Amino acid sequence: MNNTLEFREGDLIRIRLPSGEVLEGIVMPATEFSSRDVIIIKLENGYNVGICIKDAKIEVVKRAIVEVGREAPMERTVIKGKGSHKILFLSTGGTIMSRVEYETGAVRPAINATELAEMVPNIDEMVSEIHLIEMYRLLSENLTPREWSNIALNVGNAFRDGFDAVIVAHGTDTMAYTAAAVAFAVRNAPGPTIFVGAQRSSDRPSTDAVLNLRASLITACKAPFAESVVAMHGTTSDTYVLIHRGVKVRKMHSSRRDAFQSVNDYPLAKVTFPKGEFKLLNKRYIPREGDRSKLVLRPEFSDKVFLLKMFPGMPCDIIDYLIDRGYKAIVIEGTGLGHIRDPCIKSIKRAIEEGLVVVMTTQTLFGRINMKVYTTGRKLIKAGVLSADDMLPEVAYVKLSWLVGNYGSDAEKIKELFTSNLVNEINPIHDHRLYPRWYHGD
Amino acid sequence: MNNTLEFREGDLIRIRLPSGEVLEGIVMPATEFSSRDVIIIKLENGYNVGICIKDAKIEVVKRAIVEVGREAPMERTVIKGKGSHKILFLSTGGTIMSRVEYETGAVRPAINATELAEMVPNIDEMVSEIHLIEMYRLLSENLTPREWSNIALNVGNAFRDGFDAVIVAHGTDTMAYTAAAVAFAVRNAPGPTIFVGAQRSSDRPSTDAVLNLRASLITACKAPFAESVVAMHGTTSDTYVLIHRGVKVRKMHSSRRDAFQSVNDYPLAKVTFPKGEFKLLNKRYIPREGDRSKLVLRPEFSDKVFLLKMFPGMPCDIIDYLIDRGYKAIVIEGTGLGHIRDPCIKSIKRAIEEGLVVVMTTQTLFGRINMKVYTTGRKLIKAGVLSADDMLPEVAYVKLSWLVGNYGSDAEKIKELFTSNLVNEINPIHDHRLYPRWYHGD
């Protein structure tokens, strides 16, 4: 098992070297001198040293949790109004919060609290308070389960502290993953968590940031649901913004403003413009919970889960590699109804025998897993592979990361919860309109 | 570097053991006793022996190519008619060729030549000859680049031998991959290669096999193009079958009959029913080549290419593992416009320095790669990562497997050809109707 899976940048760790020497320090960012065996830590005396961790024993003394408003309060801007909703606005980075020149080391938020307020007419009539906090300045491809934990922690704490809704500004690349993460980690909330982003930065005339932000604020105040959702353009024009369920949404286009689409489910709502009307589209949702004490916050996520896409001729030894590297769970993105090439079933059997949880999703994205139809699927069921039903591969990955993070030692509990429908990540009814319509030249 | 990547079941190999001893034999299927280090070979004297290949040197003496109608002629059924088209029908297995009880060891073709002929009214007026050959009985998840080679070889040889079109019956799970493989391997053909499958087996009342087969035969006779295409239902009813370009099609649903859809391009044609009319939908195509001697057949594919899907927190050491295992190329299925988490760029740099070809595709599927917009993309370009433009991740994988198979030692040639538009795998013009329309509850 490799140490690098155990700790992360910012953690305070204790290293016991093979010589018996013990060192304690904070893990620094990797540099050109780092490798799988060498890490840089900052010692208590302030010096940074490179340590060879081969054959060393490492324990994490203190995790680098960025907890807004608790142990390490972050700077916040507060806008007050005459309305009744108290909203937290967490900024994590991404196009929505950046200028066109989005360069390393020069990432600056383009939107401040005042600008945000100006984007929504009559905002002061809607809200009692908006607290604006800059939590990260990250391109979303750089978020990991660690940042999911921190974001979920802050969302959960905000609800406990009396906020009615949370808006999270986020890069679009992995926004759907983080929205799913919060859906699993923060439950029985008094209001929705709304992820909002932009496909064009906010200083461009064509930006979608303004409308998406307005829709997120309107949703924060008017939604009857308390789910983790994504608010992004529903069309390429400025006609409406869709509010997608976080566990059923996917970025489906690299550049269009309506890149986000619900898969295997309908969006929860839409906000139409210019009027800013909130319209519910889906009756199946988790309602707002009036009693804040019922909130359940489980913000742990594991980075010992792997999402493996199957392709013709995929080498089976990759599965053995993941077992040997100490992974706890594997999400297979199989073909069709949930298949993988036959020679790999042997390695999958070994994984399950060694205690890993293995689940099957499909690279078709649309439709359900059904491993009972063909020989390959039946062999996989026999080996102990779980069906992800109609969950997206990405959502199955987030769900397993959350399950391993919170129930790591209890494989039976993980299996039971994985196949349960926790936050509408499984849609029991698919009607024909769920499958999008392709233009076939008529 | 691991030996198991170098040879496959059926190959005649020569093993030089560390002791100096040399053995020659045919690689047998893996058994419960096989492992990464132990393989079973059949010696010339007929005995099967397990050999420990750790630290052994292995060379392939003769590849196990299944060449229809050449060295090892396969049994074929021939139907003659009064028409003018000579068609080869290659069966590889899958739902279309099977009965409902699709069990291990009991896979039997459900369609014979006579039944096939009966499915198309007036078939004898369309064709001069149809040759029906059963090449494999494989579930398509079990096909590998090796089988792509064999199929491409047979398609190419058929065209050289005077056939005007080839129909390939194929399981749907990986049909799009194989269709793309033939598109790259067989060029300047006198006619189309049409992959056809079924989402419901042919002895069910709801089968789509009959209509898809009829459409494939009509396309074989009437299409003005000579591309490798997929013929599958365009709707859930029996109104028309779409003819998709093999390098632009994807199985997008696990069970629907209209699971196959063109992505980032329009279908080439449709065949409407009940009349069986052929209608061209796309003017951009490769026309039939009149001169058979111009056919170019390059049927080699490499299994040293890996398709790696990026996810938040993906461990970067997986890239180092692929380098160390002797892979020649990696297709990254990144996020958005073509991104991967920053810490992995170091491993990607190493891969490129060690001679691997690394290309970027997007998990959004729709849209293009553009690595010039954000910092991460620019770092990737600087590291030498190639853009797959609007190619599907699966097509980029097939294209690289083909390039490495045919130009393995020439990385510059591979890079030049990968970024060239060889068989319309890149669509230079996207209009807004290419993106499918989701139902948003209106």
Features:
alpha/beta; homodimer; about 25% strand; nine-stranded mixed β-sheet; five-stranded antiparallel β-sheet; 3 domains; Rossmann fold; about 450 residues; 10 helices; disordered N terminus; SH3 type barrels; globular
In short, what is this structure?
2 copies of one chain form a homodimer. Chain A is of the alpha/beta class.
Overview of this structure, please?
Two copies of one chain form a homodimer. Chain A is an alpha/beta fold. Chain A folds into three domains: 3-62, SH3 type barrels (Roll), CATH 2.30.30.520; 76-297, Rossmann fold (3-Layer(aba) Sandwich), CATH 3.40.50.1170; 305-418, Rossmann fold (3-Layer(aba) Sandwich), CATH 3.40.50. Helices cover 23% and strands 24% of the residues of chain A. In chain A, strand 1 (12-16) and strand 2 form a beta hairpin. The longest helix of chain A has 16 residues, at 145-160. The first copy, chain A, is globular. The model of chain A is unreliable at 1-5, 65-73 and 101-107 (pLDDT under 50).
